[in-house]
Amino acid sequence: MSGEKFDAIVIGAGMAGNAAAYTMASRGLKVLQLERGEYPGSKNVQGAIMYANMLEEIIPNFRDDAPLERHLVEQRFWMMDDTSHVGIQYRSDDFNGSTPERYTIIRAQFDRWFSRKVREAGAIVLCETTATELAQEGGKVIGVRTDRTGDVILADTVVLAEGANGLLGARAGLRQTSTSESVALAVKEIHFLPEDVIDQRFGLHGNEGCVIEAAGTISRGMAGLAFLYTNKESISLGIGCLVSDFAATCESPYELLEAFKNHSSIKHLIADSEVKEYAAHLIPEGGYKAIPALFGDGWVVVGDAAQLNNAVHREGSNLAMTSGRIAGEAIFEVKSRGGRMTKRNLALYKTMLDDSFVIKDLRKYKDMPALLHTNSRNFFMTYPKLMSEASKNFMRVDGTPKIENERATTAAFIKARSRWGLVSDAVRLALAWR
Amino acid sequence: MTVAVTKLRVEDKLFQNRYLVDQGRPHIKVRPHEHPSANLLALTRICPAKCYELNDKGQVEIAADGCMECGTCRVLCEASGDITWNYPRGGFGVLFKFG
């Protein structure tokens, strides 16, 4: 590959990298994509929910052959204490149309499919190749070094789609390394069950799917979230908490996962299943304020590597796909104007991203990470317990006058957080949400 | 938490996974030390693959074979120099079948 020069080298074959490589290659740019895994997807971990609209903008007819598990018709959100959960449940037949908007996927399979599309679009995809260093000349990125040869592979632009644990950009001094406060560690298992058993347990038909997301005492006072997603013949489930919280508490992630699986609200849903994989992954949680410099001379950064993740709505892969697509479009635009890949010209990527839902959504929730992280015990321990107690008081029929139950509920809230604390939490939450 | 988590062996979980170990080339190394820092010590509990363990001298050692390459230890301990971290060579390391 020495002597050859590419319009762009894309580092990584995840959602962001594939979107960028596909966008550029399908517009005729000469693209090299590097992936360190044996095949695209073999290093990638996600829950995983895939949002159709964002993929549709890249590959409009993806439903024809993409490996999709179930389309989602039902979402449950549970606030859990040790023995119970209080939940919100939304289910709608409207999600059963001909173009459903969300699907569960299995990343190792989905990424292989996406990568095939990238290759068909004309990009060269090189697997089993770890990019080890960005080559720079006079402050400009001019290519990458890999563990295959010491030679620099040259390119006008490098698209860093190296994920939450990306090394290259940070080591080249282009962006900060993630801090333990800005990333969560999630662990996940995949449990296989017959399709009809999953249908029965969740009340599903055909390809309908259901997701459960849960917060509460399951994260033991840490800022965290657990999930359970139905695939066709399996259930993906896991739990994630901030790395800084793990370090402070020394809780073990696999013990947390086991406790979640053994919770009385979850246990029966996965009974008799066969576990086939255990995975771990970092998730960017810093939000808007943690977004690093997104572009410079000869480079742009996309997806998780750029902290583009909306923790409030648990959207990651769609921000990754969209930022990858926009980066690809911006690079193509600069190129077709005959421009060089300077910092000034690549600022177009940021302008276009600012104008998309990606930055608009992240800006909306810019104060949310700090609020949840600094109040994690209240939001993930105290309130779930109070909610559970309040619900129990409301449901209980044991001869206690209702007025006494109500008083007990109010007293419990005030005792736990004080009147001032309750008002203050509510106001801060409302402000961060606004 | 009332749920008892007894006899949980993370090795049994990792047994489900596929790895191609690059023999003799560990991708993570722990800096020699007398007493581990708080973060390094925390890794013996919070590494999801339980790669870090205490030896009889109270020092933290690593066996990176079961590593899932998540980067938790890198985020916590690379900046201080407690560990050095690189990705395994291309094709080596964990291979997720489902991811």
From TrEMBL, chain B:
Keywords: Electron transport, Iron, Iron-sulfur, Metal-binding, Nitrogen fixation, Plasmid, Transport. InterPro entries: 4Fe4S_Fe-S-bd, 4Fe4S_Fe_S_CS, ETF-QO/FixX_C, Fd_FixX. One of its GO terms (molecular function) is iron ion binding. Pfam families: Fer4_ETF_QO. Residues 58-88 form the 4Fe-4S ferredoxin-type domain. To ferredoxins from P.putida and C.tartarivorum, ferredoxin I from A.vinelandii, ferredoxin II from D.desulfuricans. Could be a 3Fe-4S cluster-containing protein. This is Ferredoxin-like protein. It comes from Rhizobium tropici. The lineage of its organism: Bacteria, Pseudomonadati, Pseudomonadota, Alphaproteobacteria, Hyphomicrobiales.
